[in-house]
What we know:
Layout: E1 3-9, E2 26-28, H1 37-54, E3 58-62, H2 67-76, E4 82-89, E5 94-100
Parallel strand pairs: 1-2, 1-3, 3-4
Antiparallel strand pairs: 4-5
Helix pairs in contact: 1-2
Amino acid sequence: MNVATVGLCAGRHEIKTNDGQPVEQFIFQEIENPLDFEYLRSVSIAFNAALDVFGADVLHLYVTGLTSALTAFLAVCSTPDSVILMHFNRETGKYEPQVFY
Length: 101
């Protein structure tokens, strides 16, 4: 199984997997206007196409709290077969998975 590990937005938080590995790939590098839905959609489409090239079966997406960006990506995500949204748990300092189909 080929797993892609990415963060939603670069620069919002330092993100490390539960194994302590830094997350270094992001869907959005910079978002000037979180209400520019067409921009969010176009970046999401481009990233989704890149995922197809990498052949990822599962995407671990580390959510950084920008709802409009997450919604834009999930609306166009056709690959991989499953998306696991990783949400930060402040009490444990770890990420909790939420399966999105």
